[in-house]
Each structure stands twice: as C-alpha cells, then as structure tokens.
Design brief:
The protein is of the alpha+beta class and 219 residues long. Helix content is 23%, strand content 6%. It contains six helices and four strands; from the N terminus they run H-H-E-H-E-E-H-E-H-H. Strand 2 and strand 3 (169-173) form a beta hairpin. It binds heme C (4 copies).
C-alpha cells in the first residue's frame, strides 16, 4: 500500500514537472535554442548576438541588426511543378537566419567582432550555399499564386493560428501571421524568439497530422 501511494505521489510530481518543462518549450526565448546567455561570449545577454540598441547595421532591412550578415550566394529551390517565381537570393528575414545557419559566419560574430563558433550538422540548413533541397523561401505567395497553383489556400482570406493553446497565440490571415511582406520565409514556419510556438524546433504550428503543411497547402 505504502509503495503504491508513493508511486502515485511521484507520478503526480512527474506530471507537474513535465508541465513546467512544457512551459519552457514555448512562449519565451529564455531557455530556447536562441538563448545564448549561457554561453561565455554573450556576456550573459540573450539579444546581443542579433540586436543592438545603438550603431546597428543599416545596410540590411532588419530590426536594429547586430550580427555579421552572410555574403553567400545561394542555390535556390526549383522543380518542374513549382509555380512561384523565386525572388532570387534569400531576402526578408531569411538572410538574417542564414547568417548563422549557413555555417559560414560564426554564431559569435556580432557588434563588429569576429567569432569562431561555426554551425555544423543538421541545424546548418544552408550549408555550402545549398537551399535547393529545402522548402522554397523568399517566394511571393499571394492570391494570384493560389489561383494559379489550385491547391494553395488564398493567403489574404484563409486564417491560421500560431502558438500553443493556453499560452501565447495569435490568429489572422496567412499573410498576417505567416508571411513577411507577402513572401514565404524561414519565419513563416519558425519563430526566432520562440514567442508564438508550439515547441521545438521553434515551430509556429504543430506538425502533428501535418497541420503546419495544411495551413497553406489545400491537399
Ligand atoms: C537569434 C537571433 C535573435 C535573437 C537572439 C533575438 N532576436 Fe529579435 N529578431 C530576430 C530576427 C531575425 C528578427 C526579424 C523579424 C522576425 O523574424 O521576427 C527579429 C525581430 C525583432 C523585433 C521586431 C519584430 C518583433 O518581433 O516585434 C524585436 C522588437 C526584437 N526582435 C526584439 C528582440 C529582443 C528584445 C531579444 C532578446 C530578448 C531578441 N529580439 C532576440 C532575431 C533575434
Ligand atoms: C546568432 C546566430 C543565429 C541566428 C541569427 C539565428 N539562429 Fe537559429 N540557432 C542558432 C543556434 C546557435 C542554434 C542551436 C544550434 C544547435 O542546437 O546546435 C539555433 C537553432 C535553431 C533552430 C532549432 C531549434 C530547436 O529547438 O532545435 C531553429 C528552427 C532555428 N534556429 C531557426 C532560426 C531562424 C528561423 C532564424 C531567423 C529568423 C534563426 N534561427 C536565426 C543560431 C542562430
Ligand atoms: C515550410 C515550413 C518551413 C520553412 C519555410 C523552414 N523550415 Fe525549418 N523546419 C521546418 C520543420 C517542420 C522542421 C522540423 C522537421 C525537420 O527537422 O525536418 C524544421 C527544422 C528546422 C531546424 C532544425 C533541424 C534539426 O534537425 O534539428 C532548423 C535549424 C531549421 N528548420 C531552420 C530553418 C531555416 C534557417 C529556414 C530558412 C532558410 C527554415 N528552417 C525554413 C519547417 C520549415
Ligand atoms: C506559409 C505557407 C506554407 C507552409 C506552412 C508550407 N508551405 Fe509548402 N509551399 C508554400 C508555397 C507558397 C509554395 C510554392 C508552391 C508553388 O509555387 O507551386 C510551397 C511549395 C512546396 C513544395 C514544392 C512544390 C513544387 O511544385 O515543387 C512542397 C513539396 C511543399 N511546399 C511541401 C510542404 C510541406 C511538406 C509543408 C509542411 C512541412 C509545407 N509545404 C508548408 C507554402 C507553404
């Protein structure tokens, strides 16, 4: 009897601890993959590798940008059935992501300093300048493309909800909550700040039952 009671107690404790852990997975940048404050070179700061309050890089279209921007010339996705026309090189916010995720610029290269920690492995999405094997980004996704394709939802009409129910969520048209200036970018599926996510890897909508994909693709 005694053993059973303590088992029950530890089960309740485990569920409680798990719920605490879940909360750290979504809703905040602290504790996420982009919380660099635990790394020595960050000086204990979270935002500084990407943003600065002063002397920001004004050559890129980005909010107060502090990180060295990649100069890589990328191979973009193409296929015989793709209807969208690529806007050329990664634009919008994607080039900012690739400034760490293509593995050519060190994660700790910011504020004019040159770091030494390069990204490798599966997280280095644009390694070798190759985005040809990745979901298309920096493409215009509008009502005209939806009509042309026939199996894409109209981004100015169809709605999406991002974030975790019970946590921080946002609902709006696909254009409002998933696109940047009418284009698909890394930030269409990921939230760099982990604010409106359902959990790792910083996903705005769950992949359970492929909900993320069905949000735009009417298959
Ligand atoms: C890993 C890089 C990275 C880190 C760390 C980061 N940001 Fe950002 N931030 C971005 C990028 C990229 C954008 C561009 C737009 C987007 O994707 O939201 C952005 C956009 C913003 C914006 C404007 C758009 C918005 O979401 O309101 C604000 C404000 C902002 N960041 C504040 C912060 C603060 C405050 C911190 C630290 C607590 C922080 N960021 C940490 C990369 C980062
Ligand atoms: C300052 C460098 C930097 C920038 C800029 C940056 N990231 Fe990251 N990102 C990282 C690091 C470091 C990791 C952790 C890699 C690892 O696990 O080895 C990471 C991890 C991730 C992960 C995996 C998260 C997980 O939970 O496993 C995703 C997704 C991601 N980043 C997307 C983005 C997107 C989208 C942008 C742009 C909007 C971006 N990153 C900009 C450095 C950066
Ligand atoms: C159409 C949605 C979509 C777009 C656009 C997208 N991703 Fe992802 N990404 C995902 C999904 C879903 C996963 C998790 C499944 C997987 O790993 O393949 C993921 C995984 C990742 C991971 C973690 C890889 C790992 O194995 O740990 C990183 C890092 C990442 N993405 C970065 C990026 C960057 C950088 C861009 C832009 C160049 C981008 N993503 C564009 C949907 C997307
Ligand atoms: C933000 C909206 C959005 C999300 C989310 C999204 N896609 Fe896409 N996807 C697009 C658009 C727009 C295109 C371009 C389609 C075209 O022009 O033919 C595209 C293209 C594709 C293509 C290439 C089509 C071709 O003809 O070459 C595939 C495959 C694909 N998506 C699969 C996925 C999968 C799988 C997921 C979920 C992991 C996903 N998409 C999530 C918007 C999205």
């Amino acid at each position: 009897m005694k053993i059973k009671t303590s088992n029950l107690k530890s089960a309740i404790l485990a569920i409680f601890l798990l719920s605490l852990f879940q909360n750290t997975l979504a809703g905040n940048i602290a504790g996420s993959a982009h919380d660099f404050s635990v790394l020595g070179w960050s000086g204990g700061e979270i935002c500084v590798a990407c943003h600065t309050p002063h002397a920001a890089d004004t050559t890129v279209s980005a909010p107060l940008w502090n990180h060295t921007v990649t100069a890589t010339n990328f191979t973009m996705y193409t296929s015989p059935t793709l209807d969208a026309t690529s806007t050329g090189q990664p634009g919008g916010t994607s080039r900012l992501c690739l400034s760490c995720h293509d593995g050519t610029v060190a994660i700790d290269s910011f504020g004019g300093a040159v770091g030494g920690t390069l990204m490798t492995g599966r997280v280095a999405v644009g390694t070798g300048g190759n985005l040809g094997d990745d979901h298309p980004i920096s493409i215009t996704y509008d009502s005209a493309l939806a009509a042309l394709d026939g199996s894409l939802l109209d981004p100015s009409v169809a709605t999406a909800t991002v974030g975790l129910a019970g946590g921080k969520t946002k609902t709006g048209t696909i254009a409002a909550v998933l696109l940047t200036a009418g284009t698909v970018q890394c930030s269409s599926c990921h939230d760099v700040h982990n604010t409106f996510t359902v959990g790792a890897p910083l996903l705005k909508i769950t992949t359970a039952g492929s909900q993320l994909c069905f949000t735009c693709h009417d298959k």
